Amino acid sequence: MEAPAAVRAEGLGFGYPGREVLRGIDLSVGAGELVALIGLNGCGKSTLLKLAAGLLTPGAGRVLLDGDDVARLPRRAAARRVALLHQSAPAVPALTVRQLVRQGRYATRGPLGMLRDGDDEVVARALADVGVTGWADRPVDALSGGERQRVRLAMALAQDAPLLFLDEPTTYLDLRHQLEVLQTVVRLRAERRLTVVMVLHDLNHAARFADRIVALREGRIAADGPPAEVVTERLLAEVLGVRGRVGIDAEGGWPVCYPDHPLDPSQLLRNENHIH
């Protein structure tokens, strides 16, 4: 029998009173894939990640992790399957890097076990894998934004889960640190054999680093496929609301977008069919 997808959404729907967010999402992510979710603010990208991590309950449909309905899994059991790095997290005064990364061990060690002295091998590896072992005893709030994001990535890795979800991991970072974080994710995906789904706002980053791009528009999947097939002028217009051009990187061969100007809503095509 064929192995189940690492993540599979079936007829997934979700909304708040008076506002539908996701409508009939069918999506399958294979083990080892790196998938980028793109789309305008409010299209449902972050909501989709939270549903797939078991943090929200679907209004319709379901999400399967290796064939198991995530909504039926106990919270700690789900956390052993998938680690979600949220877009932002509140600062925790006086917490050191080591203490923050240990919090990723909650699913395995429990609320008391993750606070006891001494790092287990998983914490030590997480610190080393993102290059922050030397900062382990520094206060997190003394770090720069790029350094702090690497530490938060280490905390997610400390869950030791095979699925890694990243919600806009490059937000508020300068270009150097954006590339540093994304290159680290790509490297760790290969070294740890992770399945990665990440929300990105920069289509050029998605085209360069992802195996596959899934574009959401008004709560539905508007495009799904390899960057070379998905990244088109039509996608820029219909999904991102900009007129622009698409070229090919001379060295890497991935698509490169050149957005020219925003489109007026009246100019946007209202075709609900999938973009090809």
Automatic annotation (TrEMBL):
Organism field: Streptomyces nanshensis
Keywords noted in UniProt: ATP-binding, Cell membrane, Ion transport, Iron, Iron transport, Membrane, Nucleotide-binding, Transport
GO terms for MF: ATP binding; ATP hydrolysis activity
GO cellular component terms, semicolon-separated: plasma membrane
Annotated signal sequence range: none
Protein name: Iron ABC transporter ATP-binding protein
Listed InterPro entries: AAA+_ATPase, ABC_transporter-like_ATP-bd, ABC_transporter-like_CS, P-loop_NTPase, Siderophore_ABC-ATPase
UniProt-listed PROSITE patterns: ABC_TRANSPORTER_1, ABC_TRANSPORTER_2
PANTHER family: IRON(3+)-HYDROXAMATE IMPORT ATP-BINDING PROTEIN FHUC (PTHR42771)
